[in-house]
Amino acid sequence: MTFVKKSPWIFHLNTGSCNGCDIEAVACVTPGFDIERLGAKLVGSPRHADIILVTGPVNKHSLERIKTVVEQAPKGKVIVGIGACTISGGLFKDSYNTDPPLGKHMPVTMYIPGCPPKPEAIIAGLAKALEALK
Hints:
The protein is an alpha/beta fold and 134 residues long. It has helices spanning 20-27, 63-72, 84-88, 119-129; strands spanning 9-14, 41-42, 51-55, 78-82, 110-112. It has a single domain, classed as Rossmann fold, CATH 3.40.50.12280.
C-alpha cells in the first residue's frame, strides 16, 4: 500500500481527549507500523500539514483554538476525526462542556470510529482520506 505520489504531512491535534486515540495515532509512526515507509510524516506545525488528525471531543474551551489551527493549514487540507469522541462525544457525550460532533464546526473529510481505533484502522482511514487530496 502506498499513499499518493505526494508524501502527505500530518498534524495531530488533541482537543481534550482521554489520550487513548492519541496513543494509537502516535503508534502509527513506531517501527511496528511505520507510516513513514508509506510516505506520510508527522509535522509539528499545521502550516505544513496536508492532513489534520483530530482526537477528542469538541469542547467549548478549545473550539476557538481548533478553528485557529485548522485555518493555519494550507488550502486543500484534509480533516480526519479519530475516535468516538469526534463523532458523538464518546465518554464525554453528556458533559456540559462538549459540543460534538466535530463536523458541526468544520468540514470533516472522514471519521475513523473506535474507542480507540487501532493503528491499522487509522492507517487505512488515512489512505482513504488521501483520495480527497488528489
